[in-house]
Amino acid sequence: MSTPRDDRVSDQIPTDHIPTEPVPVPGPATPPVPGPGTSATGRTRPTRISGTWVAVLVAIVVLVFLLVFILQNLTDVTIHFLGASFTWPLGVSLLFAAIGGAALVALVGAARILQLRRQAKRAPH
């Protein structure tokens, strides 16, 4: 059985020019205007809240590592400080030493910031 043939359709190969490159499609006349919370590239900008969440997650990871460190270093050590002696677990002792060092660095940094602010106020504009 054969299919019916349409005599109106020619079997000849078309002779007009066939483009070999894609035809460009015109885009919108103006680029889209970014909405609130998006940048010029169309991506959403990070907000302060998202930055806070990242900081909270990092802090949780650090605290878990500190907890593991303290639990693995429970051997008692004797600490002598300003004539007093304490017996604490090694992990807790090192944690207090790190906190003391961080407090000292923060104190020096705060003093430097106050010094720079005073200089900025005194400087002629």
Q: Termini distance? A: 99 Å
Average pLDDT over all residues? 79
Strand percent estimate: 5-15%
Largest sheet: 2 strands, antiparallel
Number of E-type strands = 2
Report low-confidence residues grouped into runs of 5 or more: none
As a percent range, the share of helical residues equals 40-55%
Q: Would you list the SSEs in sequence order as H and E? A: HEEH
Name the shape in a single word.
Answer: elongated
In DSSP terms (H or I, runs of 4 or more residues), the helix count works out at: 2
Rg over CA atoms, rounded to whole Å, is 36 Å
Task: Please describe what this structure looks like.
The chain has 2 helices and 2 strands. It has 125 residues and is mainly alpha-helical. It has a two-stranded antiparallel ribbon with strand order 1-2. It is elongated, with a radius of gyration of 36 Å.
